[in-house]
Structure formats: structure tokens, C-alpha cells
Amino acid sequence: MFQEGSFRGFETELRDPGIAVITFNQPERLNGLTQAIKRDLIEQLTQAQMDDRVRVVLFTGSGRAFSAGDDITGRPLSPGAQLVPDIFPGHREAISTYEGLRVLSQPLNSAVRSLDKLSIAAINGIAIQTGLSLALSCDFRIASKEARLGSATLRFGLLPDEGGQYLLVQLMGVAKTMDFLMHRRIVSADEALGLGLVHEVAEPGDLPARAMALATELANGPQVAMRLLKRTIYNAAEMTWAHALDDIAAKTAIGDHHPDAREGVAAFRERREPRFNQWLEQD
């Protein structure tokens, strides 16, 4: 079951109609992420995936940052419940860096991207490095006009090692990604919109309401069909034409026989708005 409350580095709340809001709550450290926070976030996303009450996951930050990347200060986290036990963080030498990235850091973005339920990043402020990659892993991104987005890893002689380069190539293409990363660009919300990194830009005071409006719209849609469609869209980006056709045919075989599909057809014939997700309400 999706747990609500205050955890290490973030807090969660489940709002009607099934919107899991995850808010980074360490504004004094620009919502920097640690290995412990990432592991707890993965557990929260696992819970969200398996809890039928959750239909949409919404990430946002507090203060002037969405997340400014990894917190490497070593300072203790503010008090909060711990969802998973601590383990060795890695990054001691070459092999443990490889292991730490593959087992601790990269799985957070994979968990966001692999979530069947739709996800939204409400980018309230700075989104850098890990924070940017997390936002790009979400299905939808709305940015405050005050937001600034960038990788900036080369400023420290480091690499976008949590999948940022892959996500940027998918959204912008190779040429723009090369320019973005090699020139260490940190762009405004409007520039990010022009580059295709965000779907919408909102006034700072309007961002929470706009993000919740989108989340509500998505949560009220036919959940099974939307989750199947999400998967086949991401699959299509990496499949051949023949494989993509087979993939969507297999998913259509599931969706066409779901109660939501029968309700959608009935509503069309009766010239009324469909009432999707009755199966969730019954549960």
C-alpha cells in the first residue's frame, strides 16, 4: 500500500482521484538527493505501481529548487521515516562506482520511466543533473517560469551518469543534446519549452494548480488503456515497425476486452460522457 507521510528527503500525500504527490522537502539543500533518498523513492514508486488507489504520480519540490542534483555534502538528512535499510553507497573505487550507479542511482530513473501509471514533474525551480534526469524520466513536465534546467556535469568534470544523455537524445536529438551537454547549458523554462524538454510553462503561482489539473485529467481517463498506451509509445521509440505493430496488437487484445472499452463504446452510442474506472471504484 502506498504510504503517506514524511520520509527522508521527501513527503507524500494521496489526493483524489488517485494522485500520489511526492514533494522534495529539503529546500535548505536545494532538494539534493542522496543514495538513501533514492532508495526510499524507489520503494515509494513500487508501492504506487502496485496500489490500485494510485492512478498518477506527481513530483515537485519545495523552496527554490525541484532538485539541484546529488547532495555530496555528507550532511545528515532532516528527520523522516526510513522505508528501506541503509547499505554501502558505492563510489569508493572504479568497480564500486559502476555497481553504485547500476544498483542505486540509475534504478530511480528506471523506476519512474517503467511505472505503468502516468507521471508528472511539476518543476518549481532549479532542476540540475540528477534532478533534471528525474524530471525527464517523467511522462509530462510542467515548469514554472522561474525554473532553470541543465545537466552541468561537465562543470565538475563529471558525466550525466544516470541516463541523462539518453533522455536528452530522445527528446531533442543528437545535435541539440551535443550542444546542450558540451556547452554545459542551464536554460530557462521558456528555452526548455523551445527545446522540447517541457510540455508547458506556467506562472510560479499557477504551477501547483496547473499540475493538479493535468494530474486530475489523467487520473480520470481510462487507466488500463492509458497504461498500455504509455508502454507501447516508449516501446515504439526503440522498436522496428513490425515489432511495434505486434506490440500494440498484443496490448489491444487486453484493452479491447476491458470494462472501460465497453463503457467507452456504450457512452459513444448513448451520446454521453463515459464513466471510466468503475472497476477501480468497485475495488
Q: For the record, what CATH class of the largest domain applies?
A: Alpha Beta
pLDDT < 50 runs, ≥5 residues: none
Termini separation = 14 Å
Q: Average pLDDT value?
A: 94
Q: Write down the CATH topology of the largest domain.
A: 2-enoyl-CoA Hydratase, Chain A, domain 1
Q: How many structural domains can be distinguished in the coordinates? A: 2
Radius of gyration: 19 Å
Please provide a written account of the structure:
The longest helix has 21 residues, at 94-114. The protein has 283 residues and is an alpha/beta fold. The model has no long low-confidence stretch (mean pLDDT 94). It has 2 domains: 5-220, Alpha-Beta Complex (2-enoyl-CoA Hydratase, Chain A, domain 1), CATH 3.90.226; 223-282, Lyase 2-enoyl-coa Hydratase, Chain  A, domain 2 (Orthogonal Bundle). It is built from 11 helices and 11 strands. 46% of the residues lie in helices and 17% in strands. Strands 1-2-3-4-6-8-11 form a 7-stranded mixed beta sheet, sandwiched between helices. A 4-stranded mixed beta sheet has the order 5-7-9-10. Helix 4 crosses helix 5 (174-182). The chain has helices at residues 35-50, 94-114, 130-137, 164-172, 174-182, 189-195, 207-220, 223-236, 241-255, 259-269, 278-282, and strands at 5-7, 10-15, 19-24, 56-61, 65-67, 118-123, 126-128, 140-144, 148-150, 186-188, 200-202. It is globular. Helix 1 (35-50) links the parallel strand 3 and strand 4.
